Amino acid sequence: SDPNFLAVWLRLLSEANFKDSQSLINGCVVSVRRGQLVYGRNAFSARCGVPVAKLRRVISTLEREGMISQQKTNKYTIISITKYDDYQVDDQQKTIKRPSNDHQTTTLEEGKERKEGKKKHSQLDFSKWPSQPQEQTLADWKALRKSLKAPVSQTVINGFAKELAKAGDMGWSVDDCLSHCVVKGWRGFKAEWLDGGNNNNTPKRRLQEL
Q: Where in the chain does DSSP place strands (E)?
């Protein structure tokens, strides 16, 4: 219910390594495993749009609740998502056995549902929007609406079109607007809400970089 917590959590999940790798940090080669990310409070605050003081409390709460853990050194901090794999399992990999008189599994049915879901998504028309958002920005925005029990539909897309066009005249790209919705936890969107309704020519922060 707290948009700051949501923004931080989504950013942690999106920045965590999908596979093991190595990174050069302050002259040191560091192994960063799947489900981990290198964390710097000030830089992370800028990327997710949450003030440093609030970010510190959010990270402490997530660690206290066992959702993340931290490995700190004098040069860097590595955050580990405690149940990262639980958030990454492909539905098609889940196998739930039927009763003993039926040795088939639900994998095929789940695959069919997944395919139908993708087909439904592909039918959504964003052509009325001023431009197409980046894939990650769109995914974050959809995740926000899902958490608010307001899934994205064609009606929603069409409703956003006019306000996105107004925002474009104020210097805000589609990515700026959707990212701002995620950071603020907005279910709806009005161009007049941006920067307190001040029609600046350029956004205060390039939110598509978050």
A: 21-25, 28-32, 36-39, 68-72, 77-81
